[in-house]
User: Fold DUF914-domain-containing protein from Gloeophyllum trabeum.
Amino acid sequence: MSRLSPVDTKHSFVDSPVAAEVDLDGVDYADKPQRPPIDYSSFSAFHASLWRRFQSLWTRRFVLSLLAGQVVSLCITCTNVTTTELVSRNWSLPTTQTWFLYFSLFVVYTPYTIYQYGFKGWAKMIAKDGWKYIILAACDVEGNFLVVKAYNYTTLLSCMLLDAWAIPVCLFFCWVYMRTRYHWTQLLGVLVCVGGLGLLVASDRLTDKDYPALNMAKGDVFMIVGATLYGFTNATEEFFVRRSPLYEVVGQLGMWGTLINGIQAAGLEHKDMTQATWSGMNIGLLVAYTAAMFILYTVAPLLYRMASSAYYNISLLTSDFYGLLFGLFLFHYQPFWLYFPAFAVVLLGLVIYFWHATPEEQGKLDPKAPAYVHRRGDVTVGEERV
Assistant:
């Protein structure tokens, strides 16, 4: 995300936002055309300039960011539906369930990383940066585990509200890593999206979709810690993928996640594995869950580069609306009218987030050359990573 400079409007009636002076990769954007300014001199001029600014938002990368955000939101909905079905069919192994995700990431992206770097270059990368990826994978594994556990103890509405805690945590760690200075319109976009979440929670409350809590205090603590880990891992992964190839970051997350998750599953769920129902339908649901999560973990780093990890988090707030669509066909839910304006409010917040600076002004899609360059089997040490 760009480091945006505040705009001086004290001596002018025109709001002229300037592209980020220096993005995260050190590229100067000062020569880029300025965004259409907002003219406050008259109502007609204000209306015309507002429309020009809105039209300027719809760049190719902005549209792709919107679509990618809805893809990951839809993937989250698919994982919720498949997990609910698995639990109803006597298959409740949250750690074992996510092990298949990390293993699939490992077997797809790690061999490609070795192909690109060569085995020696890959080993050097692990020796230098492996500890960072171990921390990332451990936090990701435990975040997934704690959030699933939270749903077993506290109420649905409490989980929905507390899960939004990942957004300010992500914003904070983005500032820690990259010293991001958010424009007030970006923060407004986040608040509007959270307002849309509030409408969704209100609709669930009015339609009495909540369930009693087994141990609300314990579940809320699990959700807060899990959401904190989510925000930390999202910001950390954005920091990594802005400086290293995607296949390296995702492959390392999959490799270390497979080891950490496997050890945890063997220690916590080895007895339940023998008691669970391993039917053909359950295996199919497990495959669907893994496929949805694989797509999510593949698209999310792309979205981090196209927009930011904060934008990724607020995009996920539309997942409850997609959950309603699934419920209409699978569980014959009756839609409540508040769901539709809530979805529109979240989409409005996503547009407001880019009001001051488009995705093109918030970072490059391709980072600098990786530290280890592969050339047809030969490994040479390339430019050192920042």
The first strand starts at residue 14 and ends at 15. Residues 1-33, 375-386 have pLDDT under 50 and may be disordered.
